[in-house]
Amino acid sequence: MTLSEFVLSMCDREEEHARANWDHFSGHQLIFEQGVQDITTHRLHQVEAKRKIVAQYLEAVEEVGEGLDIRLNDDAGIGLQIALRYLAAVYSGEADYREEWKL
Questions:
Q1: Distance in angstroms between the alpha carbons of the first and the last residue of the chain
Q2: Do 68 and 3 meet the contact criterion of CB atoms below 8 Å apart?
Q3: Taken in order 90, 93, 97, 98, is the CA torsion positive or negative?
Q4: pTM score, two decimals?
Q5: What angle, 0 to 180 degrees and rounded to 10, lies between the N-to-C axes of helices 75-89 and 30-60?
Q6: Long-range CB contacts (< 8 A, 24+ apart) of 85-88?
Q7: Which of 44, 51, 34 is nearest to 87 (CA)?
Q8: What are phi and psi of 62, to 5 degrees?
Q9: Tens digit of each residue's pLDDT, the chain (103 residues)
Q10: Which of 48, 54, 57, 59 has a Cα at 20 to 30 A from 31?
Q11: 16-26: buried (b, 16+ CB within 10 Å) or exposed (e) per residue?
């Protein structure tokens, strides 16, 4: 699994959890429901932003293997790789996380 694939898989999981929480709590008291909706919306926006970072990263690199074995096309690609490594670090306890992604 590559760094970008890992981050995208975590995004998929976060989106699934956010939608499941909304489905679980919808129909409760209006004030409570609005709070859950706000949190869910916020989480979905975070997932969308992470996916956009991954998309920009993939445009900036030419993958030649797994993990960090890539050729970066420009300085922006290097910065995006660092950003992805920080995003991945949040999930360092996951089985698919690779130590070589650590900064």
A1: 18
A2: yes
A3: positive
A4: 0.75
A5: 140
A6: 85/3, 87/7, 87/10, 87/50, 87/53, 88/3, 88/6, 88/7, 88/10
A7: 51
A8: -120, 110
A9: 989 999 999 999 999 888 776 555 554 444 445 555 667 788 888 999 999 999 988 877 765 444 554 556 567 777 888 999 999 999 999 999 999 999 8
A10: 48
A11: eebeeebeebe
**Tokens found for residue 70:** 């890539």
| Cβ neighbours, 10 Å, residue 68 | 14
